[in-house]
TrEMBL record:
Gene this chain is encoded by: LOC107416482
GO MF, one example: L-serine hydro-lyase (adding indole, L-tryptophan-forming) activity
Protein name: tryptophan synthase
Domain of life from the UniProt record: Eukaryota
Pfam families noted in UniProt: PALP (PF00291)
Domain Tryptophan synthase beta chain-like PALP: 125-463
Family per similarity comment: Belongs to the TrpB family.
Function in brief: The beta subunit is responsible for the synthesis of L-tryptophan from indole and L-serine.
GO cellular component, one term: cytoplasm
Reaction catalysed by this enzyme: (1S,2R)-1-C-(indol-3-yl)glycerol 3-phosphate + L-serine = D-glyceraldehyde 3-phosphate + L-tryptophan + H2O
Originating species: Ziziphus jujuba (Chinese jujube)
Length: 502
């Protein structure tokens, strides 16, 4: 059967930070006050640690609601379009790929969505996650800045990705779906989905970007341990994959290609749905559990961030941490700078155009208005596989256009230099993706050293790098290079963006 679009495949309030009316505010934020002795946050090994909040803070509970930033934006984001009619996508257009509840979440304007008890129950394996002050890194940098990082690497898969994998699989299971398919770049998302499927009894098939498949055999083995079937992408199983292999048999793959392969498979089978690890509104929504938790943690230690930094691939960890803070910013209570950091080799926000484009390489998804390098742009195989995506979440792109955040790009050697400083002071070995946030944090902390400003910097440390040590080996042996950004290559792929007058 031919590769085709799935369209044709089948017929405020008060501030939580003030002290007034505490009960109402706690409800508004979705927290339940602690009744008895505070519990210290639990790690995935079953232990409880106090370190999650540092010695001088109080423990908090897992948020009970996800936050939808769209409800509070002064201008609503442009809708995704059906590429055939150029009309806004209808729920029925999406139903071959997603269960009804996730389609509702994708399009809702509701401010908060209750987190199902079954999902909270799984979140308890690793949430609340620690908020840690990087005192030793501050000391190394000799900076007056106070650096905090919210650490999501304590989840079973080792990153923030299970925050959305678990609800996505749960909603699919609830609606009787038997199998899900997906792409994975870093391997973190594929692992997260495989883990969630193992909990709720669904079959799971993953297209792992070739470069990542070759560099990270242990990520594949983790997915297989949780029961998933893993294919390198591009693969010869799908038409989308075969087309790429015809042009370039040694293609390193990309997230855009792997998405095309998984969408193609889901669109052909009534028993199979598709899950996405980033980009879409419902994915960003689920990740806000990070920021909601962090708001409370910062409040508990009496700190307010001046700057919030996160790395951006499709944008989900960045949105997860920053969106609840943007709500507070919009209400005028706080005014942090919000900064996204992308790789110099794949700079969709800083060098892309803001236009309607496909979310995948083969052009099977709806058209989304986003910052894009062109859907057939294949980024060089940098080590941060999770950041090798041609576009940016439409909601983040919109927030960027509204001027509510800023973006920079950093080359990978500077990122790994920062990661080594971080590992040798804070102990944790970051995944290649958050090394971008760490490098940007270090840049800012060193600026503070020059100016004498004691800024509070909050960083998303969204995953550990225990299965990314080949990248560290390259860096430590002096073999890592900065892959040069090619204007020509980008101009060529930008020329293929569909012409949509909107
Ligand atoms: C650890 C980690 N961080 C960040 C990302 C980038 O994705 P996103 O921008 O959606 O957070 C990935 C993607 O795979 C990842 O594995």
């Amino acid at each position: 059967m031919g590769s085709q679009s799935f369209f044709s495949a089948r017929p405020l309030s008060s501030s939580p930070l003030s002290n007034t009316n505490a009960k109402v505010e706690e409800k508004w934020l979705g927290y339940f006050p602690l009744k008895r002795k505070p519990l210290y946050p639990r790690l995935s090994n079953g232990g409880r640690v106090r370190a999650s909040l540092n010695a001088d803070s109080k423990a908090i509970e897992i948020p009970r609601r996800w936050y939808n930033l769209i409800a509070d934006l002064p201008v609503k984001p442009p809708p995704p379009l059906n590429p055939k009619t150029l009309e806004p996508v209808k729920p029925e257009d999406l139903s071959p790929l997603f269960p009804d509840e996730l389609i509702k979440q994708e399009t809702t304007n509701d401010r908060f969505i209750d987190i199902p008890d079954e999902v909270i129950d799984v979140y308890k394996l690793w949430r609340p996650t620690p908020l840690i002050r990087a005192k030793r890194l501050e000391k190394l940098l000799d900076t007056p800045a106070r650096i905090y990082y919210k650490y999501e690497g304590v989840s079973p898969a080792g990153s923030h990705k299970p925050n959305t994998a678990v609800p996505q699989v749960w909603y699919n299971a609830k609606e009787g779906v038997k199998n899900v398919v997906t792409e994975t770049g870093a391997g973190q998302w594929g692992c997260s989905l495989a883990f969630a499927c193992s909990l709720f009894g669904l079959g799971c098939e993953v297209w792992q970007v070739r470069a990542s498949f070759d560099q990270k055999p242990y990520r594949r083995l983790m997915m297989e341990t949780w029961g998933a079937k893993v294919h390198p992408s591009p693969s010869s199983i799908t038409e989308a994959g075969r087309k790429i292999l015809q042009k370039d048999p040694t293609s390193p793959g990309s997230l855009g290609i792997a998405i095309s392969e998984a969408v193609e498979v889901a669109a052909m089978s009534p028993e199979t749905k598709y899950c996405l690890g980033s980009v879409l509104n419902h994915v960003l929504l689920h990740q806000t559990v990070i920021g909601e938790e962090c708001l409370k943690q910062m409040e508990a230690i009496g700190e307010t961030p001046d700057l919030i930094i996160g790395c951006t691939g499709g944008g989900s960890n960045f949105a997860g941490l920053s969106f609840p803070f943007i709500r507070e910013k919009l209400s005028g209570k706080i005014n942090p700078v919000i900064r996204a950091v992308e790789p110099s080799a794949c700079p969709s926000l800083t060098k892309g155009v803001y236009a309607y484009d496909y979310g995948d390489t083969a052009g099977m998804t709806p058209l989304m208005k986003m910052h894009t390098l062109g859907h057939d742009f294949i980024p060089d195989p940098i080590h941060a596989g999770g950041l090798r995506y041609h576009g940016m979440a439409p909601l983040i792109s919109h927030v960027y256009e509204l001027g509510l955040m800023e973006a920079i790009s950093i080359p990978q050697t500077e990122c790994f230099h920062g990661a080594i400083q971080f590992a040798r002071t804070e102990g944790l070995i970051p995944a290649p993706e958050p090394t971008h946030a760490i490098a940007a944090t270090i840049r800012e902390a060193l600026k503070c050293k020059e100016t004498g400003e004691a800024k509070v910097i909050l960083t998303a440390m969204c995953g550990h790098g225990h299965f990314d040590l080949t990248s560290y080996e390259k860096y430590l042996q002096g073999n890592m290079v900065d892959l040069s950004f090619s204007e020509e290559k980008i101009q060529a792929s930008l020329a293929n963006i569909p012409q949509v007058v909107a």
